[in-house]
Amino acid sequence: MIFYDGVIYTGEGFAEDKPQTVEAMAVTNGKVTAIGKTDAIKHLAGPRTVLRDLNSARTGVYVFPGFNDAHTHLGSAGSTKLNVDLTGVKSLAEMLNKIAAYAKSAPAGQWLIGGNWDQTLWAQPLLPTRMDLDRVTGDHPAFLDRIDGHIAIANSAALAAAGIDGKTKPPQGGEIDLGAGGEPTGILRESAKDLVYKVIPPPSHSERRKGDELAIADALSHGVTSVQDFSDWDDFLVFEEMEKEGDLALRITEWLPFKASLPELKRMRAHHNPNDPMLHTGMLKGFMDGSLGSHTAAMKAPYADEPGNSGLPQYTQAQLNRMAVERAQAGFQLGFHAIGDKAAAMALDAYAQPGVSRTARNRIEHAQVVDPADIPRFKQLGVIASMQPNHLLTDMNWAEERLGSERAAYSYAWKAFLDAGVRLAFGTDYPVEPITPFRGLYAAVTRMNEAGTMTYFPQNTLTRGQALYAYTQGSAYAEFAEKHKGKLAPGYDADFILVDRDLYTVGAPAILDTQVLETFVAGKASYTRGSGAR
């Protein structure tokens, strides 16, 4: 194919905010083969070449490199889409009404799962209880995750099925909330959720595949051509099945669970060709803590709005150090979920151990609150800050209250990382947030809410080029793919999108309304607006 007479952003110059554009691009066998002026590139056409006249000046169609989402959970997204989806509910009453409607149509005794509720959106932001759920769930056990996945609400039937009562001891790093009478409220935090997960029947293969297909189609429709994903191993087997059948249109790098045994990790790593350009395994994902929204992120000092609570670390430092060295020595890249400043410091301490390479591109996922004294350590240890700017759009309504003004000032500190020479990789944490990258771009360059009425510590805003770089080449670097992915240059993967506006020149609010017209992966149209994913 040859695309010509357009405005094509190659990705060169993004980091310096001096973007290169060209008029035309040739694509052959899934790779970009030439870029330049329209006349020169059109001369390369052969008898089977498909010519596409972009005529950007007239049509308003612009080409950008495809987005590489550096942090997703496709399996969780698919499960939510097929079950009780509570995304965006504005009150407990609305939440219960949705659950009741789903329960009425579900087969008798079927588990009600899914979730994505967020009490911080409610006028009265109190956590739901098992008694609330019991009123609307009938004979169904119910277990519904909060939007961040770090706490969940269980009804009485689910607690009974898991054998949880007021005397149940939570596992390390977990907590079972108890009411005034000493009985569970239904809220389970962090690893305590596993007590219920163990007794929930797994989805059938066909259900899992349907959910995964929906999540992949969602990504493609929003201009995402690659994801770095943490889903169940059974989801990876579904992706593998789709690839064998010629149905996988999204590039997926699948993370493996840090807590799994080393023999199991080696077995999973050896299962699939590591050089497969569409699907392979990647880093090990570990959890240092929980989330700010759940008050489970591990902090160096207590929460401003819960003075007796400093969060829930998931490891002792000694445990973490031992496991990190063992897995690093086996050749694995490591990535630790760390939202609180204590969690980030623990991860950095683990990376500083002898035996953990400083060239392995180890990562800290989220890095939402980091002690300013720890930011230079990212650079010293070669650690990538893998962050999700769109989280700020949700969290800014309550983050300062939760953190206090001093800590809030160095939260979501994208610019501070860049100024310290730290590499950024951007993503969404889908389905915790929608997978659209345009919310993240908007947040990164404005640090304002979507209504434009509130600003959050604007000293950490980025330029458009810096944000686009982190979402394309920065995320490619984080998965060792920067030599073939992330920009439109000869020899690079032909992963690109056609959008309805120039992301570099439109007013910042207009970024939020960007429409993806087509998504190309390996030179093939994987999504066309109006026709869906292919």
Write the layout of secondary structure elements.
Blueprint lengths: L1 E3 L2 E3 L11 E2 L1 E5 L2 E6 L1 H5 L8 E3 L2 H4 L2 E4 L1 E6 L1 H9 L1 E2 L6 H14 L6 E6 L12 H8 L4 E5 L4 E4 L1 H7 L11 E5 L5 E7 L3 H4 L7 H17 L2 E6 L3 H12 L6 E7 L4 H10 L7 E9 L29 H13 L4 E5 L2 H11 L11 E4 L8 H7 L2 E4 L2 H6 L3 H5 L1 H4 L5 H6 L4 E3 L10 H10 L17 H8 L1 H6 L17 E4 L8 H4 L4 E6 L2 E5 L3 E2 L1
Parallel strand pairs: 1-6, 2-7, 8-15, 9-10, 10-11, 15-16, 16-17, 17-18, 18-19, 19-20, 20-21
Antiparallel strand pairs: 1-4, 2-3, 4-5, 7-22, 11-12, 12-14, 13-14, 22-23, 23-24, 24-25
**Classification by helices and strands:** alpha/beta
Looking across the biggest beta sheet, what order are the strands in?
A: 8-15-16-17-18-19-20-21
Shape: globular
- Termini separation comes to 18 Å
Helix percentage range: 25-40%
Tell me which CATH architecture of the largest domain applies here: Alpha-Beta Barrel
Number of strands: 25
Average of per-residue pLDDT values: 97
Question: Mind telling me the C-alpha Rg?
Answer: 23 Å
Total domains? 3
CATH superfamily of the largest domain: Metal-dependent hydrolases
Which percent range describes the beta-strand content?
Answer: 15-25%
